[in-house]
Specification:
The protein has 14 helices and 13 strands. A hairpin with a 2-residue loop joins strand 11 and strand 12. The longest helix has 48 residues. It is of the alpha/beta class and 427 residues long.
Length: 427
């Protein structure tokens, strides 16, 4: 298992700092370790106190980690004074640490200042040259570049200035802007990459900078390139902020997987027994594993996806009708299910996915699909259904009730069909 070390301050409220770093690294699949630079008394509204550790004790923590479980990546967060910065830089040079991500935490999301003025100079001179990437937000980038930032053009100019002056890659975060959440990476060799993102209406943004930089470090530890690590980290934090998006994705999954995982296997079991049902599941599993756009398995994946589309053509349409019936049985809007199902059944790149998703959206009176972020890249997709109300966690339970009811209907229907065929033949 890959490992990552966070060198940062503690947040007693658990939303930022070391606490956020350890949770993020763990959820991104690496073993997380820590070296604490300071204890803070803070919450989502502000910082009321900071108690630094001594440089000697910080050095002891770093030594304890590197001499036993060497980290594959290091994330550096809140370091409020020049002596602590000097200690970190000396120890990381001594151990020849790799994949260092520096989040120059100068001001908390709440607006509280977290770094002494002289520490900013030390950060630039001692830690930035060691970093694979630094991750300033807009306000921090204004301090580091000496430039105001109010537009994409000014973001680009500031990032170029910091990258040139500090000789390191810079990810300038756009989440603190008023319009979007596009981030800009300017690498040390001059390569420039924009990572598109949508602004999420969520007041719970305490610790988002810590989370993003920790996720980048975790993915660097796992062997991803810097652009790949950033894309994966942005996808992770977007999903974490978008609770409504997670709920919507769960409802979409229930709708689509009713066709793939319930209706289609039963359909092929009726036609050819267990052998044909197993053949279908082999096709469906192959599509799930390599059917997406994957450069390594491009042609094999494309063949799997097309074969799965053909195999699910009839079952998906049968599943849509069964879900509409289930809507009536479970007290949902059956008329809306049929209306939206007919209107939006083609609003998806797949010829089959929208069949059941449209019925589900109409039954619940919500809007599914639409723009989505995958690994930091924003994809524009058509919406399915009408937004009569926001998606809420209770919709997952409602969707599952429809799934159970539709599954029961499917079993009854196929049992009747099998009896109608077999009984006259004496089978």
């Amino acid at each position: 298992m890959k490992t990552a070390l966070s060198i940062a301050g503690s947040d007693c409220s658990g939303g930022a700092g070391i606490q956020a770093d350890l949770k993020t690294m763990t959820l991104n699949g690496v073993f997380a370790m820590s070296a604490i630079t300071a204890l803070t008394a803070q919450n989502t509204t502000g910082v009321s106190g900071i108690l630094e550790v001594s440089p000697a004790f910080l050095a002891q923590q770093i030594d304890a980690v590197f001499t036993d479980i060497r980290p594959d990546a290091v994330k550096i967060g809140m370091v409020s004074s020049a002596p602590l910065i000097a200690t970190i830089a000396e120890r990381l040079r001594f151990y020849q640490a790799r994949h260092i991500v520096v989040d120059p935490v100068m001001v908390a999301t709440s607006g509280s200042r977290l770094m002494e003025t002289d520490a900013v100079r030390s950060l630039r001179e001692q830690l930035f040259p060691l970093a694979e990437v630094i991750t300033p937000n807009r306000q921090e980038a204004e301090v580091l570049s000496g430039r105001p930032i109010h537009s994409r053009e000014e973001m680009l100019a500031a990032a170029r200035t910091i990258a040139f002056d500090c000789d390191c890659s810079v990810l300038l975060k756009g989440g603190h802007s008023d319009t979007d959440a596009d981030d800009l990476l300017v690498e040390a060799d001059g390569t420039e990459t924009w990572f598109a993102g949508r602004r999420i209406a969520n007041p719970n943004t305490h610790g988002t900078g810590c989370t993003l930089s920790s996720a980048i470090a975790a993915n660097l530890a796992k062997g991803y390139s810097l652009p790949q690590a950033i894309a994966r980290a942005k996808g992770y934090i977007t999903a974490a902020l978008s609770a409504g998006g997670v709920t919507k994705a769960a409802v979409e999954t229930v709708a689509e997987n009713f066709a793939d995982g319930v209706a289609a296997p039963m359909f092929y079991m009726l036609l050819g027994g267990a052998p044909l049902a197993l053949c279908y599941k082999a096709v469906n599993t192959m599509d799930s594993m390599v059917g997406y756009k994957n450069e390594r398995y491009l042609y094999f994946g494309r063949a799997a996806a097309k074969l799965d589309d053909a195999a699910n053509y009839l079952p998906a349409r049968m599943a849509a009708l069964l879900l509409a019936g289930a809507a009536a049985l479970t007290g949902q809007n059956a008329r809306g299910a049929l209306r939206i199902g007919r209107r939006d059944r083609r609003s998806h790149a797949s010829p089959n996915s929208a069949q059941t998703e449209a019925v589900m959206a109409g039954a619940l009176g919500v809007q599914l699909a639409g723009p989505a972020s995958y690994f930091g890249k924003l994809y524009e997709k058509p919406t399915i259904g009408d937004a009569l109300r926001p998606v809420e966690p209770g919709d997952i339970l409602r969707a599952n009730r429809m799934l159970y009811a539709a599954g029961t209907l499917c079993m009854a229907l196929l049992a009747c069909a099998r009896a109608a065929v077999c009984l006259p033949l004496g089978l």
